[in-house]
Amino acid sequence: MNIQILSVVAGLSVALVCPPVAATEYVYRELMANTLPASQCDSADKAVANATKKYTLARYSKKFCHSQGYGWHVNTIKDTGKTACTPCVGGQSGSQTCHQEDVVVVCQRIKPGTVGLLPGKG
User: Fold this and answer.
1) Is the pLDDT of residue 90 over 90?
2) Distance from the CA of 12 to the CA of which of 25, 57, 62, 80 falls in 20 to 30 A?
3) Are strands 103-110 and 96-101 parallel, antiparallel or unpaired?
4) Mean pLDDT, the chain, as a whole number?
């Protein structure tokens, strides 16, 4: 019984000494952009596969968010968009380059004023 009372008292003393911690708040922004086509020409199947790779979409999504300014990061990729292909001029017949159009990305950054980030105060 004495052990239970001591643990309750210790828990209350820790709760009274430590101030409440505010949760981090974020600002969100939704962007729509296009990826760039590959530099080399490939067969139709290979070009579409390269344009829709998870790695390619993640890399361009990161670039889209970083273009918004300091502190912006990828939260989620909402829509991978549609694949658009163009035939290569002067290349092999049937060769083309592809890219993704209308990729929708949700970017986030920490809201100024939360977690000790007051503008102009260090």
Assistant:
1) no
2) 25
3) unpaired
4) 83
